[in-house]
Amino acid sequence: GESVGLHLPTLSVQEGDNSIINCAYSNSASDYFIWYKQESGKGPQFIIDIRSNMDKRQGQRVTVLLNKTVKHLSLQIAATQPGDSAVYFCAEKISGGGNKLTFGTGTQLKVEL
Amino acid sequence: NAGVMQNPRHLVRRRGQEARLRCSPMKGHSHVYWYRQLPEEGLKFMVYLQKENIIDESGMPKERFSAEFPKEGPSILRIQQVVRGDSAAYFCASSPPSQNTEAFFGQGTRLTVV
Fold first, then answer.
1. Closest residue in chain B to residue A42, using alpha carbons only
2. What mean pLDDT do residues A41-64 have?
């Protein structure tokens, strides 16, 4: 079946640097993408989303980029802080399916002081 | 407004026993989703329910697993005759009726089968 996958299982960055987490998806029918942050022992927390009719969306310190041509999604975190340390998941869904999400494997972000 | 509430947070069952996981959605949310997460993996969709209806159960194992969301009370995920492979974190998410809103996740129930 089609799935969402991530390239890097672990990413280590220095505090204050920018982080980039990548994700590849394969279901061309997906039209809504979300990034979640999951801290140890907790549930996924919504960070930012983007619809397929957009290629960029910005939030507070985070930016999501969508490249439909190569089916690639990225999450950029500016000025990474220790509190950003967590596992980050991309997820995709198709409109009309409620919130039935397909999640990627996840990337562990470690922020070094 | 309390978030999605799941209980228990941790559940230990012996092989062959039944596990019952509960999820109370956020106020005003009528859609509930259950996901399973194995260690160091992403969440896998199991089932999508609305009040008294199962909308999509394409991710549910064919045997031993069932889910309900009654008119009154929490949503229940039931696992009968648990096996060690059922050990995982089970997350519930809820959303309002609108299709264009995000789902909010609970803190999960960590099931350990011994």
1. B107
2. 95
CA dist., res. B108 & res. B106, Å (int): 5
pLDDT digit string, tens, across residues A12-46: 999 999 999 999 987 889 999 999 999 998 999 99
Q: Do B102 and A49 touch (CB under 8 A)?
A: yes
**Residue (of B49, B2, B46) closest to B30 by Cα position:** B49
Contacts of A43 in chain B (CB under 8 A): 4, 91, 105-108
Any B CB within 8 A of A22 CB = no
Q: Among A79, A75, A70, which Cα is nearest to A46's?
A: A75
Nearest to A44 by CA among B45, B97, B58: B45
Tell me how many degrees the CA angle A79-A81-A86 measures, rounded to the nearest 5. 120
- The verdict on whether omega for the bond into residue B8 sits within 30 degrees of 0, i.e. cis, is yes
Cα A41 to Cα B86: distance, rounded to the nearest angstrom:
18
Length of chain B: 114
